[in-house]
């Protein structure tokens, strides 16, 4: 009886191994990715500057809006709020709001915010201002200390991503 069980076990093992090998050689049918007609929609906040420096302030693909880093500048590219961290932060959020409005969004749609700063201490001192911006919830994101930003004396740069709801 023990020999029969042992022989049965060997045979069963061989069948399992053969089945496993056979199944490894089978191609898994590939599902076709759904075809989307989402084409990037580009938005230039300051067209002359963006063309000169070779960037686009925002790109919408599908229902996601990605806004590249914004610093505190006027329409001619001059730094505003020099030496005043709070003012630079206010200016940056004002520019971000213009981009969001272009897409029919508010800061409630923002799902990601990355803040780059040359002074983490100043960011922490001024962080409460963000409660005026994000009145319902804060997005995910990071605060990143850097040596310098795109213009001398710029102290803060913010990039965001927003999700456009289906109702918009």
Verbal overview:
Helix content is 35%, strand content 21%. It is built from 5 helices and 6 strands. 21% of the residues are buried.
CA-CA gap between termini: 74 Å
Major sheet: arrangement of strands: 1-2-3-6-4-5
Mean pLDDT: 87
Structural class of the secondary structure composition? alpha+beta
Bin the helical content.
25-40%
Secondary-structure element sequence?
A: HEHEEHEHHEE
Give a short account of the largest sheet.
6 strands, mixed
Chart the SSEs and their pairings.
Elements: H1 2-24, E1 41-43, H2 47-53, E2 58-61, E3 64-70, H3 85-102, E4 110-117, H4 120-126, H5 130-133, E5 140-145, E6 156-163
Parallel strand pairs: 4-5
Antiparallel strand pairs: 1-2, 2-3, 3-6, 4-6
């Amino acid at each position: 009886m023990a020999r029969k069980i042992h022989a049965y076990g060997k045979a069963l093992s061989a069948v399992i191994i053969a089945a496993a090998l056979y199944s490894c050689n089978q191609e898994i049918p590939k599902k076709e990715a759904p075809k989307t007609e989402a084409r990037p929609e580009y938005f230039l906040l300051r067209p002359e500057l963006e063309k000169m420096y070779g960037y686009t302030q925002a790109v919408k693909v599908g229902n996601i809006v990605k806004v590249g880093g914004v610093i505190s500048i006027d329409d001619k590219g001059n730094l505003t709020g020099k030496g005043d961290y709070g003012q630079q932060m206010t200016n940056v959020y004002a520019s971000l709001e213009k981009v969001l409005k272009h897409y029919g969004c508010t800061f409630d749609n923002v799902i990601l915010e990355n803040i780059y700063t040359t002074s983490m201490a100043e960011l922490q001192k001024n962080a409460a201002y963000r409660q005026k911006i994000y009145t319902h919830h804060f997005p995910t994101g990071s605060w990143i200390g850097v040596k310098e930003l795109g213009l001398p004396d710029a102290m803060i740069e913010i990039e965001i991503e927003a999700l456009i709801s289906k109702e918009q």
